[in-house]
Amino acid sequence: MRDLFEKIQELEDIPTYSKHEQLVQGVINAIQEKLLTKGQALPSVNNMIKEFGFARETITKAYKELKDRGIIESKNRLGYFVANESIDQTLKVALLMFGFDTFQEIFYRNFRETLGENVHLDVFFHHNNIEVFETILGHIKGKYGMYVVAPIPHPKTAALLQAIPTNKFLMFDRYEPMEGDFSYLSQEFGEATYNAFVELADAIKKFDEVIFFYEPVSAIPIEILKSFKKFCKNYQVKGTIKVNYTAGSLEKGKVYFTLDNACIVSILKDCKTKNYKLGEDFGILSHNDEPVKEILWDGITTYSVDFGEMGRKAATYVLTRKKVQEILPTVLIRRNSL
């Protein structure tokens, strides 16, 4: 029973956990990690009191909840026993995302559908704020059977994530290095961006200048900025970096590169007002594909990973616990805008 006691003790420092919740989740964690098997006896109520000093009522309440959920059973005068090792219906998953842009919604929708109805899912957003990220991780630590996390590039990130057991952790979207052998499903930004620009070089050179809208404090990966500069230098293309797009500033002979959907909408409004022709008078290149970009103005050229596939693969890992370490391919999708 020492393994079970340790699983329960792991949760005692979480201030948001009641003693009752600590006992229930500790037993579930022990079953999920195969420390308890079907038919195995649980400690008696008296032994639990002796080990933890909890009130009898707290322990009997926890055992009753586990019994009501079909996880354990009681046998007359013999005590409590593990009734079911298959506890998918009780699996709780924490999904920590950047935000809920359209491409992230595509990930979520496919992740949720693949998980199925028997998995409880809670979603949190850190908005690329390390303080929010740290607060959320502190709040949810030890409360879930699986943690699926989009990390933040920050010196604190690795230490925060290493507090999560690797068998309950999946890193997705971005890849951030940390110690240990952990699972991840990520995209790559540097080489993928450079290759997309190289493939579009002939189309880009038909225009006078490429303008990249980049905010240094935004969530845009720095690798994209570096690759943009590298391409402009290597291919002798005039490249300009601006913080944001100003309404009414659309010019002929420019290619506009942006990761911001609101920026694209503003550019297209000006296109309509000035009666310009997209793909001829000016061009647009965007990162992260989504259905609306396929139909806007007969199509916006993008380069992107398949976020639906990422969501499905992430859910498969949660359900099977089969280790995955994959950088998903980035694909250039050429459309009318460039």
Give structural notes:
This protein has 338 residues and is α/β, with parallel strands linked by helices. It has three domains: 2-82, Arc Repressor Mutant, subunit A, CATH 1.10.10; 91-187 and 307-329, Rossmann fold (3-Layer(aba) Sandwich); 190-304, 3-Layer(aba) Sandwich (Rossmann fold), CATH 3.40.50. The protein is built from 13 helices and 14 strands. The protein has helices spanning 2-9, 19-32, 45-52, 56-68, 102-115, 130-140, 157-161, 190-199, 201-204, 222-234, 261-274, 291-295, 307-320, and strands spanning 72-75, 79-82, 92-97, 120-125, 146-149, 169-173, 183-186, 209-213, 239-242, 254-258, 283-287, 301-304, 325-327, 331-333. The strands form three sheets. A six-stranded parallel sheet has the order 4-3-5-6-7-13, with helices on both faces. A six-stranded mixed sheet has the order 9-8-10-11-12-14, with helices on both faces. A two-stranded antiparallel ribbon has the order 1-2. Strand 11 (283-287), helix 12 and strand 12 form a beta-alpha-beta unit. The longest helix is centred in the first third of the chain and has 14 residues, at 19-32. It starts with a helix and ends in a 5-residue tail after the last strand. 34% of the residues are buried.
Indicate the topology.
Layout: H1 2-9, H2 19-32, H3 45-52, H4 56-68, E1 72-75, E2 79-82, E3 92-97, H5 102-115, E4 120-125, H6 130-140, E5 146-149, H7 157-161, E6 169-173, E7 183-186, H8 190-199, H9 201-204, E8 209-213, H10 222-234, E9 239-242, E10 254-258, H11 261-274, E11 283-287, H12 291-295, E12 301-304, H13 307-320, E13 325-327, E14 331-333
Parallel strand pairs: 3-4, 3-5, 5-6, 6-7, 7-13, 8-9, 8-10, 10-11, 11-12
Antiparallel strand pairs: 1-2, 12-14
